[in-house]
Amino acid sequence: MPFTVSAYAARSATEPLAPYQVERRDVGELDVRIDIKFSGICHSDIHTARSEWGASNYPVVVGHEIAGVVAEVGSGVTKFAVGDRVGVGCMVDSCRECESCRAGNEQYCSKGNTGTYNSIDAEGKVTQGGYAQAIVVTEDFVLRIPDSLELDVAAPLLCAGITSYSPLRHWNAGPGKKVAVIGLGGLGHMAVQLAHAMGAEVTVLSQSLKKQEDGLKLGATHYYATSDPETFQQLGSTFDLIVNTVSAKLDMGAYLALLKVDGTLVNVGAPDEPLELNAFALITGRRSWAGSNIGGIAETQEMLDFCAEHRLGSEIEVIPAGKINEAYERVLASDVRYRFVIDTSTL
Ligand SMILES: [Zn+2]
Ligand SMILES: [Zn+2]
Q1: Are residues 61 and 172 in the same domain?
Q2: What's the 199 CA to ligand 2 centre distance in angstroms?
């Protein structure tokens, strides 16, 4: 039988989020019912709650950084048992047949993956996300959270963690490589830790030196203010890889000039307005400008295991449900170090 659980939902683009009873589907043969313990707040949640990326289906329960415990499994489930510590990220399904899905890149499914919220699932219903006390997800899209990772610290890894990890792996961040991270926010603070743990030499490029101490503590060797023009003169042709976590318009040519020959700048942040580029910035150093979107399910598991092995996680501030709207304003003001996580027992 379908059931309802306590949640927080946006009822329109302009109203604050408020308590809501969300319906979950019956636990099917291959489904896992998860009692959600913690749910991270991602900037995408705010965009969706406010219809900033197109009209959302209201009421919408957002949240795709979900950590909890398995409460029930379907008769055909083989990977999980009641009591297991698990997570769910940005996807809850995909076609599983296209070239991308077969390669383990479900995030690039040619038919479009099913987002954890505000997406249409196989039954034709709108998916509802993690600001809730439970969720039902097919087992293939459920991740195992290693015992050594606390659930609250693990939650943001399911989006911010994998979004940073995937490009670092794809472009071979590791010993002997110089990696720069633009922006030290929710994504950037994970990218710094991960690149450092992979063995790369990490530089933070931040607007100011306000968070320098944090950046060095997280594993950066160098920290520069991009508001200082000297930075760009000093760092020309320095990096093998630059990960741009900033969702604002930047002078891409200035940043591309910091890449060595054959270097790559990869965008994981997505500004609302188009970014401009003079092709000479690429041509003069055979440089590449790329993008990357979260990671596949197998790679997300690899990231969680990597974080457990290297004892790293997100820096978090746990909040009760009543503070979600205030937290949104603080995210927009960059007033968070570095991720808000909702304690879902307060929903
Ligand atoms: Zn996210
Ligand atoms: Zn597919």
Answers
A1: no
A2: 33
Looking at the structure, tell me whether residues 182 and 203 fall in a common domain. Answer: yes
The domain that holds 197 is classified in CATH as 3.40.50.720
Residue 279 CA to ligand 1 center (angstroms) comes to 31
Give ion ligand 1 contacts, CB < 5 A: 42, 44, 159
Range of the domain at 229: 161-291
Q: How many domains does the chain have?
A: 2
What ligand is nearest to the CA atom of residue 112? Answer: 2
Q: Are residues 13 and 138 in the same domain?
A: yes
Hey, how many other C-beta atoms are within 10 angstroms of the C-beta on 208? 10
Q: Tens of pLDDT along the chain (347 residues)?
A: 899 999 999 999 999 999 999 999 999 999 999 999 999 999 999 999 999 989 999 999 999 999 999 999 999 999 999 999 999 999 999 999 999 999 999 999 999 999 999 999 988 999 999 999 999 999 999 999 999 999 999 999 999 999 999 999 999 999 999 999 999 999 999 999 999 999 999 999 999 999 999 999 999 999 999 999 999 999 999 999 999 999 889 999 999 999 999 999 999 988 888 999 999 999 999 999 999 999 999 999 999 999 999 999 999 999 999 999 999 999 999 999 999 999 999 99
Residue 282 lies in a domain: yes
In a domain, 215, yes or no: yes
The residue type of 309 is E
Give me ligand 1 centre to Cα 65, in Å: 7
CA of 212 to the centre of ligand 1 (A): 25
Q: Indicate if 132 and 186 belong to the same structural domain.
A: no
